[in-house]
Amino acid sequence: MDSSQVFTYGQQGLLMLLTVSAPMLVVVLVVGVLVSIFQAATQINEATLSFVPKLLAAVAVCAVAGPWMMSTLVDYLRSMLLAIPAAAG
Asked: With 0-12 CB in 10 A as exposed, 13-18 as middle and 19+ as buried, what is 27?
């Protein structure tokens, strides 16, 4: 195994991490911005007002996109584990 293969596997891993985490991050970011705009407009400064909607949005994304995330990660892990003999030999 040479350094180019290591960098390729690392790049694939980071891309997979970005792909799987993107839906959660985008939804929570959008909900956070909307709650911040609401707080700025109404001048309500309550900490739980920003935390609870983001938590509910994260749970909703896990419920909707969770099976896709899990199958994507399992497929990636399977391909990495099957590549071990070729990389070692």
From this structure: middle
Question: Rounded to an integer, what distance in angstroms lies between the CA atom of residue 31 and that of residue 16?
Answer: 24
Tokens representing residue 40 in the block = 């700025």
Tell me the pTM: 0.81
Q: What is the dihedral of CA 65, 68, 73, 74, to 10 degrees?
A: 140
Q: State residue 33's pLDDT score.
A: 95
For residues 31 and 13, what is the distance between their CA atoms, to the nearest angstrom?
Answer: 28
Side-chain half-sphere exposure of 74, counting CA atoms within 13 A: 6
Q: Helix or strand or coil: residue 63?
A: helix
